[in-house]
Amino acid sequence: SAYLYLRIIANRYKSSPLLIEKLNDTNSTNIKSPCKTTRLNVAEVSYAALDEISSLPIFLITRIQFDVIHNECWNFYDYFYNNKNKKEFQRMVRDWYSKEKNNYKPKTISKKKQTDCQRKYKITKYWDWKR
Questions:
Q1: Is this structure's pTM higher than 0.70?
Q2: Average pLDDT over residues 112-121
Protein backbone atom coordinates (compact mmCIF):
# COMPACT_ATOMS: atom_id res chain seq x y z
CA SER A 1 0.00 0.00 0.00
CA ALA A 2 1.01 3.62 -0.41
CA TYR A 3 1.03 4.02 3.36
CA LEU A 4 3.56 1.20 3.86
CA TYR A 5 5.72 2.49 1.01
CA LEU A 6 5.85 5.96 2.56
CA ARG A 7 6.58 4.58 6.04
CA ILE A 8 9.57 2.69 4.60
CA ILE A 9 10.81 5.89 2.98
CA ALA A 10 10.22 7.80 6.22
CA ASN A 11 12.69 5.40 7.90
CA ARG A 12 15.19 6.74 5.43
CA TYR A 13 18.63 5.23 5.33
CA LYS A 14 17.78 2.52 7.86
CA SER A 15 15.56 0.93 5.21
CA SER A 16 18.27 0.71 2.55
CA PRO A 17 19.73 -2.73 3.46
CA LEU A 18 16.25 -4.30 3.52
CA LEU A 19 15.34 -2.71 0.20
CA ILE A 20 18.59 -3.89 -1.39
CA GLU A 21 17.79 -7.43 -0.28
CA LYS A 22 14.45 -7.18 -2.12
CA LEU A 23 15.97 -6.07 -5.44
CA ASN A 24 15.67 -9.59 -6.87
CA ASP A 25 12.14 -10.36 -5.56
CA THR A 26 9.96 -10.86 -8.64
CA ASN A 27 6.69 -11.39 -6.75
CA SER A 28 4.00 -9.20 -8.24
CA THR A 29 2.41 -6.21 -6.52
CA ASN A 30 -0.75 -4.24 -7.33
CA ILE A 31 1.31 -1.14 -8.16
CA LYS A 32 1.31 0.22 -11.70
CA SER A 33 3.81 2.41 -13.51
CA PRO A 34 3.36 4.27 -16.79
CA CYS A 35 6.76 2.84 -17.83
CA LYS A 36 5.69 -0.81 -17.61
CA THR A 37 2.76 -2.61 -19.20
CA THR A 38 2.35 -5.06 -16.31
CA ARG A 39 2.24 -4.38 -12.59
CA LEU A 40 5.51 -3.72 -10.79
CA ASN A 41 7.10 -6.48 -8.79
CA VAL A 42 8.61 -6.20 -5.30
CA ALA A 43 12.12 -5.57 -6.68
CA GLU A 44 10.90 -2.67 -8.80
CA VAL A 45 9.01 -1.08 -5.91
CA SER A 46 12.08 -1.57 -3.71
CA TYR A 47 14.22 0.25 -6.27
CA ALA A 48 11.69 3.11 -6.40
CA ALA A 49 11.85 3.38 -2.60
CA LEU A 50 15.67 3.35 -2.63
CA ASP A 51 15.60 6.09 -5.24
CA GLU A 52 13.31 8.16 -2.99
CA ILE A 53 15.68 7.71 -0.03
CA SER A 54 19.05 8.30 -1.64
CA SER A 55 20.90 9.08 -4.83
CA LEU A 56 22.09 6.02 -6.69
CA PRO A 57 24.62 6.84 -9.42
CA ILE A 58 23.44 4.09 -11.77
CA PHE A 59 26.32 4.48 -14.24
CA LEU A 60 28.92 4.09 -11.49
CA ILE A 61 27.05 1.10 -10.10
CA THR A 62 26.36 -0.74 -13.37
CA ARG A 63 28.98 0.74 -15.72
CA ILE A 64 26.16 1.01 -18.26
CA GLN A 65 25.18 4.39 -19.69
CA PHE A 66 21.43 4.95 -19.41
CA ASP A 67 20.77 8.40 -20.82
CA VAL A 68 17.64 8.15 -22.94
CA ILE A 69 14.18 9.21 -21.82
CA HIS A 70 11.31 8.24 -24.08
CA ASN A 71 7.70 9.10 -23.20
CA GLU A 72 8.95 10.19 -19.77
CA CYS A 73 10.45 6.72 -19.15
CA TRP A 74 14.17 6.32 -18.55
CA ASN A 75 15.83 3.56 -20.59
CA PHE A 76 17.29 2.15 -17.36
CA TYR A 77 13.84 0.62 -16.84
CA ASP A 78 14.21 -1.44 -20.04
CA TYR A 79 17.17 -3.07 -18.30
CA PHE A 80 15.79 -3.27 -14.77
CA TYR A 81 12.27 -4.43 -15.64
CA ASN A 82 13.80 -7.51 -17.27
CA ASN A 83 13.75 -10.06 -14.44
CA LYS A 84 16.87 -11.75 -15.84
CA ASN A 85 18.87 -8.68 -14.75
CA LYS A 86 17.56 -8.46 -11.18
CA LYS A 87 20.09 -10.71 -9.43
CA GLU A 88 23.11 -9.06 -11.08
CA PHE A 89 21.73 -5.58 -10.41
CA GLN A 90 21.14 -6.50 -6.77
CA ARG A 91 24.74 -7.71 -6.47
CA MET A 92 26.06 -4.49 -7.99
CA VAL A 93 23.95 -2.30 -5.68
CA ARG A 94 24.90 -4.40 -2.63
CA ASP A 95 28.60 -4.07 -3.51
CA TRP A 96 28.20 -0.33 -4.08
CA TYR A 97 26.37 0.17 -0.81
CA SER A 98 28.92 -1.79 1.23
CA LYS A 99 31.78 0.31 -0.21
CA GLU A 100 30.07 3.70 -0.34
CA LYS A 101 27.57 3.86 2.54
CA ASN A 102 29.86 6.11 4.58
CA ASN A 103 29.96 8.60 1.70
CA TYR A 104 26.22 9.24 1.95
CA LYS A 105 25.26 12.34 3.89
CA PRO A 106 21.80 13.65 4.74
CA LYS A 107 20.63 16.56 2.63
CA THR A 108 17.61 18.59 3.67
CA ILE A 109 14.74 18.74 1.20
CA SER A 110 13.62 22.37 1.02
CA LYS A 111 10.01 23.02 1.98
CA LYS A 112 9.40 24.27 -1.56
CA LYS A 113 10.50 20.96 -3.05
CA GLN A 114 8.74 18.68 -0.57
CA THR A 115 5.78 16.78 -1.93
CA ASP A 116 2.50 16.57 -0.03
CA CYS A 117 3.39 13.00 1.00
CA GLN A 118 6.83 14.07 2.23
CA ARG A 119 5.24 16.77 4.36
CA LYS A 120 2.56 14.40 5.67
CA TYR A 121 5.11 11.76 6.73
CA LYS A 122 7.75 14.29 7.82
CA ILE A 123 10.25 13.17 5.20
CA THR A 124 12.70 16.05 5.33
CA LYS A 125 15.99 14.42 4.36
CA TYR A 126 17.45 12.74 1.32
CA TRP A 127 20.70 10.76 1.43
CA ASP A 128 23.08 12.27 -1.07
CA TRP A 129 26.24 10.53 -2.23
CA LYS A 130 29.32 12.71 -1.82
CA ARG A 131 32.74 11.68 -2.86
A1: yes
A2: 83
